[in-house]
Automatic annotation (TrEMBL):
It is an enzyme of class 3 (hydrolase). This is Polysaccharide deacetylase family protein. It comes from the Bacteria. Residues 61-238 form the NodB homology domain. CDD domains: CE4_NodB_like_6s_7s.
Length: 257
């Protein structure tokens, strides 16, 4: 009971503090402070080189393509598309029934230059579970991913975007930054690939973070059209770390355009 009380007080403090800055409204908590990619870049040392490859998002019209809740039986085809289109993505992976089931796809994601991150082990809502359970939800996929790729994730996406000050504290302890999104196709509501494509295109803007799920049958077929249309509009696709460079995501902070 004491732990629950502390979490509720922390959540209330987080929601109150958010009123003073850039905020995101979430179910289960009124508001959460977020930091925009442009802010991270501006706060980096003046004149610093972009750390990731040749893309400098201070100058280029960047956008990040992210996929939640995989790997799945659709992920191999998605990776083929991304390789063909020369587009890097950020994958927020689930552990149970996903990383466990498709370890070779996790290895392939990392080998082909994508950012491999965490979406928790079992998609539990982090604001509704104990501190011990939060740590387990975050530690287990990190350990599994590190074992497969040699690199421990530094980014995570909270299920349903639900987070609070207590989650931030634990993420900071575990070396994780939280990444939300600015574009959602709500592909969990439809298998219509044309509709998914249109929803993404309607919402996309510079520094956008696109949320898709490669577990649904309509999503992967929509990806080539999304990529082609956004490239025609002058966008350059990057991973989330590339979007922040030359700045870096800080553990315990929440990022959203």
């Amino acid at each position: 009971m004491q732990g629950t009380g502390r979490r509720l007080r922390r959540r209330a403090l987080a929601c109150a503090a958010a009123a003073a800055g850039l905020t995101l409204t979430l179910a289960g908590c009124a508001q959460v402070d977020t930091t925009a990619p442009s802010t991270v870049r501006a706060e980096a040392a003046h004149g610093a080189p972009a750390k990731f490859g040749s893309v400098d998002c201070r100058k280029a019209k960047c956008i990040a393509l992210t996929f939640d809740a995989g790997p799945s039986e659709n992920s191999a085809r998605l990776l083929d598309i991304l390789k063909e289109k020369k587009v890097p993505a950020t994958f927020f992976l689930l552990g149970k029934r996903h990383i466990e089931k498709y370890p070779e796809l996790v290895k392939r994601m990392a080998a082909e230059g994508h950012e491999v991150a965490s979406h928790t082990w079992d998609h539990k809502i982090l604001t509704k579970i104990s501190d011990k359970e939060i740590r387990e939800e975050l530690n287990r996929p990190n350990e599994a991913i590190e074992k497969l790729t040699g690199h421990k994730p530094t980014l995570m996406r909270p299920p349903q975007g639900r987070t609070d000050s207590n989650v931030h504290e634990i993420c900071k302890e575990l070396g994780l930054a939280e990444v939300l999104w600015s574009v959602t196709a709500k592909d969990y509501t439809t298998n219509d690939s044309a509709l998914i494509t249109q929803r993404v295109l309607d919402q996309s803007s510079r520094d956008g973070i696109i949320l898709l799920h490669d577990i649904y049958p309509g999503t992967v077929p929509a990806v080539p059209g999304i990529i082609d249309a956004l490239k025609q509009r002058g966008y350059v696709f990057v991973t989330v770390p590339q979007l922040l460079a030359p700045g870096k995501a800080e553990p315990g902070k929440v990022y959203r355009p």
